[in-house]
Amino acid sequence: MRKKIVAGNWKMNLGFQEAEELIEEFMTLLEKQELKTEIILCPPFPYLEMASDYAQEELFHIGAQNISPFEAGAYTGEVSASMLSSMDITHCIIGHSERRKYFNEDDKMLTLKVNQALTHQITPIFCVGEALPEREGGKHFEVVRRQVRHGLFHLDTNEFAKVVIAYEPVWAIGTGVTASPAQAAEMHAYIRTLITERYGNEIAEATLILYGGSCNAKNAAEIFAQPGVDGGLIGGASLIAEEFLSICKQAQ
Ligand code: 13P
Asked: Which CATH class is domain 5-250?
């Protein structure tokens, strides 16, 4: 059976002190539990070192929200994969719809980011998902197929086996509207079919596919119970320690 992952994407929220308090509160709550779920916190870049110091306790891993497509050098403002791995950052969100939309990240750039992450032993959490007009126009499978193929299918089998995928329908992000459990299950199954076609059944069955989009303590259990849903990528609800812990527990 595949393990479950719950990752918290803090996005561009919280001051430094608030961030530290959130981690401390979450750790205190988490220490009393014995969770099998793999937990990943993805704070903004400037808080990664602080967060990764806490993660030494091995209760959770730390991921970045972005990564440079370049190796090193004159790229002002960028943070490289080797910098992240030198700080014990184990995961990185790549291809989030907010980066595709506001920072014009296209498939080509995302492949470079995925390559950089893998070269430096960082697990990509690769996001895919359709916008509302695409779903309403019946194009959601086509959109997700393109994102998965163009973003990931250049990888060889060994490389692909290290990738985590997150299905985040854009219309469900930050809107309070989640995909229905059936919609999530349907898309996860579709993504797994694509993986089977490209890499075979064994790899497809081993690939972790998370759901993201307005997931919270009230709806997580139902979504995580769907076949093919291997946990969640959580935005707003990951900023509240108790709620995030409750979501992590529901992924058991
Ligand atoms: P929300 O959980 O706030 O909808 O955000 C989901 C998300 O974008 C996680 O990456």
From this structure: alpha beta
Does the pTM of the predicted model rise above 0.85? yes
CB neighbour list of residue 248: distance below 8 Å, 6 or more residues apart: 6, 30, 35, 37, 39
Residue 61 falls in the annotated catalytic set:
no
The closest-lying atom of ligand 1 relative to the alpha carbon of residue 166 is 10
Q: What is the pLDDT of residues 126-152, one digit of tens each?
A: 999 999 999 999 999 999 999 999 999
**Does the Cβ of 236 fall within 6 Å of ligand 1?**
yes
What's the rounded Cα separation, in Å, for the pair 6 and 153? Answer: 24
Q: For residue 38, indicate whether it is catalytic.
A: no
Query: What ranges do the domains of the chain cover?
Result: 5-250
Q: How many alpha carbons lie under 13 Å from residue 249 in its C-beta half-sphere?
A: 15
